[in-house]
Amino acid sequence: MANITVKNIPNDLYERLKDVAANNHRSLNNEIIVCIEKAVKSRRLDKEQSLDRIRKLRKLAKLPRLSEEQLRQIRDEGRL
User: Fold this and answer.
1) Are 26 and 34 in contact (CB under 8 A)?
2) Is the dihedral of CA 7, 9, 14, 16 positive or negative?
3) What is the residue-wise DSSP string for 4-16?
4) Do 70 and 52 share a domain, yes or no?
5) What predicted TM-score, i.e. pTM, was given to this entire model?
C-alpha cells in the first residue's frame, strides 16, 4: 500500500479528526482514509436529473410559482 504524508494540518482540523475517529471507534489513520474515500467516491450531480427532480417535487408540493417581483421582495426582506 502507498503512504501519504500530510503537512500543515490546522490544529482545529486535527482535533476534530481525532474526535470523529474516536466517536467512530477508528484510528486517526483509518478515519482519514474513510474521509478520503468519501470525497473521492462522491458522485457528481447531473444537472438535468436534479432539475427534473425539483420540478416533480414542486408539482407534488402544489406551491404557487413566484413572480420575479415576489422573489425580489423576498430577497430584499432578507428571507432569501
Assistant:
1) yes
2) negative
3) -------HHHHHH
4) yes
5) 0.52
Model confidence band, residue 22 (pLDDT cutoffs 50, 70, 90): very high
Cβ-proximal residues to 34 (8 Å cutoff; 6+ apart), any chain: 24, 26
Question: How many domains are there within the chain?
Answer: 2
DSSP 77: T
**CA atoms of 35 and 24, how far apart (whole Å):** 12
Examine residue 62 and state whether it is found in any structural domain, yes or no: yes
- Asked if residue 51 and residue 33 are part of one domain, the reply reads no
Nearest to residue 19, comparing CAs of 35, 37, 3? 35
Say which residues have a Cβ less than 8 Å from residue 80's Cβ, sequence separation at least 6: 71, 74
Instruction: Check residue 80 and give its pLDDT.
Output: 53
